[in-house]
């Protein structure tokens, strides 16, 4: 279920000042890793929990019809079934980058958390990404079920 949740897959490594670091070039420890953005706080909520929230527009019954139509329009994933998830995860990581765009990270506090400031329009961007990912997840679940239980 989390495979299509971009902020569950994407993560940032940060130094104590909130600057992004490359874990392949610099040693990191438990205080550098955001643990899936659980340690990045926008006000009272962490960024991870903000992404767990479902926008009202995606809760409405009318979204179901739109989502089903959009899911049916997506092309199926090609290749062997045992490779589908890797491709889907890569796509979600790209979406995760969009989820971090424009997010300003402040210095780490004594509890090991970073305060973040979300850019203008962030809630709308998040909702757009969530809509896209929900449609993809539904289409892909259908494809998996059809592969397992052919008609």
The number of helical segments is: 5
Distance between the termini: 24 Å
Element order: H for helix, E for strand = HEEHHHEEH
Mean pLDDT: 89
Helix share, percent: 40-55%
Radius of gyration over all CA atoms, rounded: 17 Å
Main sheet attributes: strand count, strand direction, barrel closure: 4 strands, mixed
Class per helix and strand makeup: alpha+beta
Number of extended strands:
4
Give the CA-based shape.
globular
Q: Which stretches are low in confidence, meaning pLDDT under 50 for 5 or more residues running?
A: none
The main sheet orders its strands as 2-1-4-3
Kindly estimate the percentage of residues that lie in beta strands according to DSSP.
5-15%
Short descriptors:
four-stranded mixed sheet; 5 helices; alpha+beta; 151 residues; single chain
Report what the structure shows:
- The chain has 151 residues and is an alpha+beta fold.
- The chain is built from five helices and four strands, in the order H-E-E-H-H-H-E-E-H.
- The chain has helices at residues 6-9, 47-52, 61-73, 84-100, 122-148; strands at 40-42, 45-46, 104-108, 114-117.
- Strands 2-1-4-3 form a four-stranded mixed β-sheet.
- Helix 3 packs across helix 5.
- The longest helix is centred in the C-terminal third of the chain and has 27 residues, at 122-148.
Topology:
Layout lengths: L5 H4 L30 E3 L2 E2 H6 L8 H13 L10 H17 L3 E5 L5 E4 L4 H27 L3
Parallel strand pairs: 1-4
Antiparallel strand pairs: 1-2, 3-4
């Amino acid at each position: 279920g989390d495979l299509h949740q971009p902020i569950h897959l994407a993560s940032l490594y940060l130094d104590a000042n909130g600057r992004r670091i490359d874990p392949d070039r610099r040693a990191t420890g438990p205080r550098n890793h955001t643990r899936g953005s659980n340690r990045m706080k926008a006000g009272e909520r962490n960024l991870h929990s903000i992404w767990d929230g479902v926008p009202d527009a995606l809760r409405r019954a009318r979204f179901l019809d739109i989502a089903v139509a959009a899911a049916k329009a997506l092309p199926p994933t090609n290749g062997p079934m045992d490779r589908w998830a890797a491709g889907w995860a890569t796509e979600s990581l790209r979406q995760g980058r969009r989820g971090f765009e424009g997010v300003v990270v402040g210095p780490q506090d004594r509890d090991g958390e970073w305060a973040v400031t979300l850019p203008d329009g962030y809630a709308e961007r998040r909702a757009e990404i969530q809509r896209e990912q929900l449609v993809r997840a539904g289409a892909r679940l259908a494809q998996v079920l059809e592969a397992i239980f052919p008609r």
